[in-house]
């Protein structure tokens, strides 16, 4: 799946193989315009929402990511319809394990970020004892650089894995079924 769409130099490249997959072909074929700008925008949305290589992938909240893509890509007065959502679901099925783990790591780190942002040092339990002690807060803060470093390492590992999947020695592209699985 990862090799079906590529975003380079502010342009979405759609491989010919993508059009052999019904849901992507349906999006393409329903756009009756000459330049296929609607289909390209909709497939671009699928890429930006689902692909771990997208700049929008770091936005953990799906509603926030959707809104950021719509605004950032100039898709004004547009919302993903049933067919686009079907394409997203299909695309998501073929994410490599490294991408799924990276997404889960981002979600966990985002929860830590929200936790730190919402700490109320004045909050107390039913017995009047502080819920958060200064040492607990400092300990949590001390762990943040390690979490960020690990996230960075995971992102680099994913990038390396994706490059290995799409390229062979000599820069030749792998065929769709070369590794006995779709990616």
Features:
single chain; two-stranded antiparallel sheet; 55% helix; 4% strand; elongated
Distance between the termini: 4 Å
With helices defined by DSSP (H or I, 4 residues minimum), what is the helix count? Answer: 6
Number of domains: 2
Pick out the low-confidence regions. Answer: 174-183
Shape type: elongated
Spatial sequence of strands, sheet with the most strands: 1-2
Listing every helix as H and every strand as E from the N terminus to the C terminus, the arrangement reads: EEHHHHHH
Q: How does the major sheet shape up?
A: 2 strands, antiparallel
The helix-and-strand class reads mainly alpha
The fraction of residues in strands falls at: under 5%
Describe the structure.
This protein has 183 residues and is mostly helical. The chain is 55% helix and 4% strand. It has six helices and two strands. The protein has a two-stranded antiparallel ribbon with strand order 1-2. α2 (37-50) crosses α4. The longest helix has 33 residues, at 134-166. It is elongated.
Set down the secondary structure blueprint.
Layout: E1 5-8, E2 11-14, H1 22-30, H2 37-50, H3 62-72, H4 82-92, H5 97-118, H6 134-166
Antiparallel strand pairs: 1-2
């Amino acid at each position: 799946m990862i090799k079906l769409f590529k975003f380079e130099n502010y342009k979405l490249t759609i491989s010919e193989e993508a059009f052999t997959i019904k849901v992507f072909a349906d999006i393409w074929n329903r756009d009756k315009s000459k330049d296929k700008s609607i289909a390209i925008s909709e497939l671009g949305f699928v890429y930006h929402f689902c692909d771990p290589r997208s700049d929008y992938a770091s936005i953990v909240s799906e509603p926030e990511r959707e809104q950021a893509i719509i605004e950032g890509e100039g898709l004004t007065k547009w919302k993903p319809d049933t067919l686009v959502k079907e394409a997203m679901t299909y695309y998501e099925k073929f994410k490599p394990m490294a991408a799924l783990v990276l997404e889960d790591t981002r979600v966990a780190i985002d929860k830590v970020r929200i936790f730190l942002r919402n700490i109320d040092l004045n909050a107390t339990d039913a017995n009047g004892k502080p819920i958060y002690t200064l040492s607990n807060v400092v300990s949590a803060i001390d762990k943040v650089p390690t979490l960020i470093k690990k996230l960075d390492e995971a992102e680099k590992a994913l990038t390396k894995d994706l490059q290995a999947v799409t390229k062979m020695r000599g820069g030749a592209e792998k065929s769709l079924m070369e590794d006995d699985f779709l990616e």
